[in-house]
């Protein structure tokens, strides 16, 4: 049986912190689906289609990674894909409380799915998509925080501001 994991998130946009988690998960699992989810509590800068495209470009070097999207509950998606593992990244202790709540709810919805937490590389522990967007909005350099395609996409989004 193949070991399939889902790495869910909004990825608005994908950062090197996200890629660190995805690359490390790809070393452990036979296949990793990076699943773009729409979070109604957030106002995304990039459309789901744009996020998928940016993730595909950023992960093209990883053979056992695919990119997908879903608009509903993560546990429904996991059931649909017959996945029993989620991979979630943690940057700092502050992430843990939020992730604990999500994991507890997910477990209530589907106790057959386990969540594995991966600590991001320390050099990315401060990094968030929100922070990247804020810096890029004011023409700050984010080229060492995001893949080249994302850097260009951010510059394109904010060139008229």
UniProtKB/TrEMBL annotation:
| A Pfam family hit | CTP_transf_like
The entry's cellular-component GO terms read: cytoplasm
Keywords of this entry: ATP-binding, Coenzyme A biosynthesis, Cytoplasm, Magnesium, Nucleotide-binding, Nucleotidyltransferase, Transferase
Has the keyword Calcium been applied to this entry?
no
Q: Per the record, what are the reactions this protein catalyses?
A: (R)-4'-phosphopantetheine + ATP + H(+) = 3'-dephospho-CoA + diphosphate
Enzyme Commission number(s) from the entry: 2.7.7.3
Q: What class of enzyme is it?
A: transferase
The cofactor required is: Mg(2+)
CDD domains assigned to the protein according to its UniProt record, in alphabetical order: PPAT
The GO annotation for biological process reads:
coenzyme A biosynthetic process
Q: Which SUPFAM superfamilies match?
A: Nucleotidylyl transferase
Compartment(s) of residence: Cytoplasm
Alphabetized GO MF terms: ATP binding; pantetheine-phosphate adenylyltransferase activity
- Where along this sequence does the record place binding of substrate? 10, 42, 74, 88
Q: In which pathway does it act?
A: Cofactor biosynthesis; coenzyme A biosynthesis; CoA from (R)-pantothenate: step 4/5
Domain Cytidyltransferase-like: from-to ranges:
6-134
**Which residues hold ATP?**
10-11, 18, 89-91, 99, 124-130
Annotated site (Transition state stabilizer), which positions? 18
Q: Is Cytoplasm a UniProt keyword of this protein?
A: yes
Family per UniProt?
Belongs to the bacterial CoaD family.
Entry function: Reversibly transfers an adenylyl group from ATP to 4'-phosphopantetheine, yielding dephospho-CoA (dPCoA) and pyrophosphate.
Assembly and interaction partners = Homohexamer.
Name the UniProt record assigns to this protein: Phosphopantetheine adenylyltransferase
From which organism does this entry originate? Answer: Amphibacillus marinus
Source taxonomy:
Bacteria, Bacillati, Bacillota, Bacilli, Bacillales
């Amino acid at each position: 049986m193949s070991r399939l994991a889902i790495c869910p998130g909004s990825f608005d946009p994908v950062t090197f912190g996200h890629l660190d988690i995805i690359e490390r998960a790809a070393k452990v699992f036979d296949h990793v689906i990076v699943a773009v989810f729409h979070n109604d509590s957030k106002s995304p800068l990039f459309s789901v289609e744009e996020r998928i495209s940016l993730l595909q470009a950023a992960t093209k070097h990883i053979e056992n990674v695919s990119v997908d999207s879903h608009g509903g509950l993560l546990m429904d998606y996991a059931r649909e894909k017959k996945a029993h593992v989620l991979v979630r990244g943690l940057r700092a202790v502050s992430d843990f409380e939020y992730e604990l709540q999500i994991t507890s709810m997910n477990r209530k919805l589907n106790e057959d799915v386990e969540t594995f937490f991966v600590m991001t590389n320390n050099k990315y522990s401060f990094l968030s998509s929100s922070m990247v967007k804020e810096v890029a909005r004011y023409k700050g350099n984010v080229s060492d925080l995001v893949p080249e395609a994302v850097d260009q996409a951010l510059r394109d989004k904010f060139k008229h501001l």
